[in-house]
Amino acid sequence: MLNLGILISGRGSNMESILKAIKKNGIPINPAVVISNKADAKGLKIAKKLGVSTEVVESKGFKGSRAEYDEKIISVLRKYKVTPKNGLVCLAGFMRIISPEFTKKYKNKIMNIHPALLPAFPGLNSQKQALEYGAKFSGCSVHFVDAGMDTGSIIIQAVVKVHEKDTEDSLSKKILREEHNIYPEAVRLFAERRIRVYGRKTKII
Ligand code: GRF
How many Å lie between the centroid of ligand 1 and the Cα of residue 32? Predict the structure, then answer.
């Protein structure tokens, strides 16, 4: 079976939705490890409660390069057998940019969830960006991670309507509900080996 590693920095609600869906819906993937770059990430407690191993690779005060930090993450992933051959890495609110060395090693094996309809509103504060831009619809995207910022091949997207009265908070909540549906679904498709990548396009078979 494939091994799953989830990288978080904080709340961990997407991580929780994936871990719960694996149990509830019998997704054929082993939740091997949750890794946080912050020792106080709330998601670590949730992972432990759900019986999943946790590790911290503290990024604060780390003196080396981005690639050197990622090497530490990769060595933890290896320890739990989350390899490019036999694994999937899910970024779930992991607030760090991944080095090209990491994305190259794990090509099309790292996924991310982004709270906007990519390629619109990449980077930080996407919900605020969508509101300020006056978008009538926004949503979320699960995509493979490449060396760019939120530029990898899109796997699944979900749309939400933006209402005039929406605030950053209300829009974020609406989008988050959809995130919790599509991220576990993307993991399921990957685990069932149903995602094909053609250049920057994906096809679900
Ligand atoms: C989500 O909005 C996700 O789209 C973004 O970071 C947030 C993480 O939330 N990448 P959580 O930690 O999964 O609750």
Answer: 20
Best residue for ligand 1 mutational test, from 124, 179, 180 (most atoms within 8 Å of Cβ): 179
- Residues 109-129: pLDDT tens digits? 999 999 999 999 999 999 999
Go through the chain and tell me how many residues it has. 205
Catalytic residue among 114, 143, 163, 180: 114
In CATH, the architecture of 2-204 is 3-Layer(aba) Sandwich (3.40)
Angle, helices 126-133/168-191, rounded to nearest 10 degrees: 120
Task: Please indicate whether residue 114 is annotated as part of the active site.
Answer: yes
- Confirm whether pTM is higher than 0.85: yes
What is the tens place of the pLDDT at every residue in 58-93? Answer: 999 999 999 999 999 999 999 999 999 999 999 999
What residue spans define the domains of the chain? 2-204
Burial tier of 12 (Cβ tally within 10 Å: 0-12, 13-18, 19+): buried
